[in-house]
Design goal:
A hairpin with a 1-residue loop joins strand 9 (about 155-165) and strand 10. Helix content is about 25%, strand content about 30%. The protein is an alpha/beta fold and about 200 residues long. The protein contains 6 helices and 11 strands. It has a single domain (about 1-200), classed as Class I glutamine amidotransferase (GATase) domain (Rossmann fold, 3-Layer(aba) Sandwich). The longest helix has 14 residues, at about 185-200. The protein has a 9-stranded mixed sheet with strand order 2-1-3-4-11-10-9-6-7. A two-stranded antiparallel sheet has the order 5-8.
Length: about 200
């Protein structure tokens, strides 16, 4: 079962619709008993870092997610805020992140570029992964974010993207995957990426 974790931080419906469009069934839930049955987990999210951590704690979801991820080794895909929550901390807030990845979330700073980074952009593949297995010679995704992930373990970096400077647009540590872009808004590229996550992990 594919579980989309609903912790009241937006965009679960669009992720669900995209998964349905590519021919799979998913369940949107914050129910611990249902998450226990998950074979794939998606942690989407839009909004502030601290609010995300607070909501996960309020719903009692951190313990079950960590059990699934670290004990059962269930593949998990963090999208946008979901990716950032996997890091140790964020310049956006004061609370500690999930700390699943040796990384921090930092704010874009620029006098010349518009913030947030919004729109389509290419990703540069740094490390081969089944996540990006396809016939595409180039991958483009839709981004909306004012904060980015800085990874301190270079082996975790799957792709980088340039906006103001190079930043980590996706990472993977074993079964833990994060993407800064929105596959659910990225048409054929997003559909392929989600299909790869569902079928190859």
């Amino acid at each position: 079962m594919i579980v989309i974790v609903n912790y009241n931080m937006g965009n679960v419906g669009s992720v669900y619709n995209m998964i349905k469009k590519i021919g799979f069934e998913a369940l949107i839930t914050s129910n611990i008993n249902e998450i226990e049955k998950a074979k794939k987990i998606i942690l989407p999210g839009v909004g502030a870092f601290d609010n995300g951590i607070i909501n996960l704690k309020k719903l009692g979801l951190i313990e079950i997610l960590e059990y699934k991820v670290f004990k059962e080794r269930v593949p998990i895909l963090g999208i946008c805020l979901g990716m950032q929550l996997m890091t140790k901390k964020s310049e956006e807030g004061e609370l500690q992140g999930l700390s699943w990845i040796d990384a921090e979330t930092k704010r874009f700073v620029s006098d010349t570029y518009k913030i947030p980074h919004m729109g389509w952009n290419y990703v540069k593949i740094i490390k081969n992964s089944d996540l990006f297995s396809s016939e595409f010679s180039e991958w483009r995704f839709y981004f909306v974010h004012s904060y980015y992930v800085e990874s301190y373990n270079k082996d975790d970096i799957l792709t980088t993207t340039f906006y103001i400077h190079d930043f980590v647009s996706s990472f993977q540590r074993e079964n833990i995957i994060g993407v800064q872009f929105h596959p659910e808004k990225s048409h054929k590229f997003g559909m392929m990426l989600l299909k790869n996550f569902i079928t190859k992990f």
